[in-house]
Design goal:
Two copies of one chain form a homodimer. Chain A has twelve helices and 15 strands. Chain A has 395 residues and is of the alpha/beta class. In chain A, strands 2-10-9-8-7-3-4 form a seven-stranded mixed sheet, sandwiched between helices. Chain A has a four-stranded antiparallel sheet with strand order 11-12-15-14, covered by helices on one side. The first copy, chain A, has a two-stranded parallel ribbon with strand order 1-13. In chain A, helix 7 links the parallel strand 7 and strand 8. The longest helix of chain A has 22 residues. Chains A and B meet through helix 2, helix 4, helix 5, helix 7 and helix 8 of A and helix 2, helix 4, helix 5, helix 7 and helix 8 of B.
Chain lengths: 395, 395
Amino acid sequence: MKFTEDVFAPHMRPITGSAIREILKLCGRPGMISFAGGNPSNSALEPDVIARLSSEVLAKYGTALLQYGATDGFAPLRESAAEFLNGSGVKCTADTLLPCTGSSQAFDLLLKAMIEPGDVILCESPTFLGAIQAMREYGARLISMPTDSEGVIVEAAEELIRAHHPKLMYVIPTFQNPTGITLSLERRKALAALASKYGVVIAEDDPYRDLRYAGTELPAIQSFDEEGWVVYMSSFSKYISPGMRLGAAVANPVMLRKMVIGKQSTDVHSPLLIQAIIDAYLREGRMPAHLARIRADYRRQLDAMLEGFAAFPAGTKHTVPEGGLFVWAELPEGADGMAVFNAAIEAGVAFVPGTHFYPEGGHENTMRLNFSMCEIPAIQEGMKRLAGVISEVCR
Amino acid sequence: MKFTEDVFAPHMRPITGSAIREILKLCGRPGMISFAGGNPSNSALEPDVIARLSSEVLAKYGTALLQYGATDGFAPLRESAAEFLNGSGVKCTADTLLPCTGSSQAFDLLLKAMIEPGDVILCESPTFLGAIQAMREYGARLISMPTDSEGVIVEAAEELIRAHHPKLMYVIPTFQNPTGITLSLERRKALAALASKYGVVIAEDDPYRDLRYAGTELPAIQSFDEEGWVVYMSSFSKYISPGMRLGAAVANPVMLRKMVIGKQSTDVHSPLLIQAIIDAYLREGRMPAHLARIRADYRRQLDAMLEGFAAFPAGTKHTVPEGGLFVWAELPEGADGMAVFNAAIEAGVAFVPGTHFYPEGGHENTMRLNFSMCEIPAIQEGMKRLAGVISEVCR
């Protein structure tokens, strides 16, 4: 019998993979300026430091780092990571924190614990497309929550909860991917209250929190949660290195235990060498100065991008984020985003068409622009190219 | 509203975690001789080599190792790992191999691609308890295939396929965990033919293949598969290091693509530093001499354990594996395994009661004994303690 796609679970059949990963292949063309990815700047990465720490932890722990470890994580890292998150206002201890293979895995384990095909999840729209794919892979039915410049509109979210009885609400409250928008303080409190009122788990995805370039730090939604309804997810990807794949989940003990059980059979534990390196990085006290340095760089890059919008045609709107890695732009209603994208690639500048971030599609006049991977002259040149392309296509 | 376990998916609620992990906690007691784990010997691990390779790859690849990588794996490793598996008689190329965060993840991604709650999976009984848990976490219904000293009985498997229409068959063909039994050549061919005849995917879990101490190497089931029904899973855990969490899946391109899509949202990719270290390890040509050395040690440890059975009460049966890490013992029918286990812990020797490896439970008179983690004098002493305990309890 020939192999057939009938072997796949029905909800997995239509999932064809990340659109961004296809776009990133175009970014390899010579001369291409890429606003498409979500990577840190190469100058934010420290291979020499990582190499030294790797040698040091292998000398210190020896074979213990190469044997099987505990699923619930390398004990010293659970402590140091909890302390790091406490500094950012997250309520946690070593016992309520689970190191994961990236925060992607934290979300995957939460979905694995909770979702069966047909379950409803509320999410922002637009939202992180990796999360859209993750939720669909568990057969979840996604319902979009209306948002404005302060994030999720709480009254609308409450109506949707009453109408659809979701099990889970997925929110990126700080410098949201893809819009750069930050959920206001009042709404953070209100969402925490909503979760508790209706028994809905909130997945609070917060990987950009410490990349703030303006405004005042806001407490996590999780900090207002008294009854364990918020699962907080953090990541070292944007701060230290995405390639090392280390993130963390913070959850109430019952939820965390179920996620640990899921992790036992997903990857047993995250690689100990990686956990020990990040632990050593934190314990050396490197983080504050490192974050200060990359924030200063990213702030200048963001400013350069924002300035570039001046040359865009009238009617273009864009967000003015206080941090993170992305700016979101909306061309005049009816602009043909695919035509803009194709012409932009021709002109040597790449971005991600915003439509990919909407669970329901549409919104072809939107675009996500990343500023962290380009030097300032490249940002200026790329924005000039984009302005030209858009003026041409939208004429 | 108080947080409640009602938020969990129904099939996740009864899953309470790995029994072995609880037993391993007892093994930390002073003086305890442990036959319970499945770890490599500490003397098989090479922290100095790993530290050197880590520095070398970070110097060679720089920031590229710290940025996001491709979900389908670090390209040099896909090549070197495919070449390594070719040497073991597995049909694959860089393009049909997916590096995973342990072979546990390979199986998890296969389940994610294929299984929805209620689907049937055939498995050996007893089988690897991590796999039992993984299958249950996707809501699969497990049906045990009868086995004998040559592994799965093919005619019985065929009857079960006709009766239950499974999507998947999970098999550990070489030095099986927990029994140490190896599937015969004829049955390997027959299972491959069965998969193709009925359109059942075989998950061939083969992490011990290169730990052979006697007998002749057998081709993988996958080597007889002409139509892509076998997914082959390998691991560097037993050869280089379990703590580094690196394994691989080999599958037909359509299946592999769906597993890559699952991996995009599970952990995006396995840590690049780990992939690069294992790649460098393979490219330095370290594996043949390393495997020869650990095989020589493990062979002596296995022999010491097998000799220890001479002092066991009459009526005890045990396997005589040609490789791997485990020996399986059956006490006389009706022996109270829990009483033996408790008395053994009191006497300072630990093992895993065999009942945990049966999807349906029962078989309280069985035990899994690992020999790789103890030096020969400890194996001799541990077997003596066990013989005493069993004679006492089964009297």
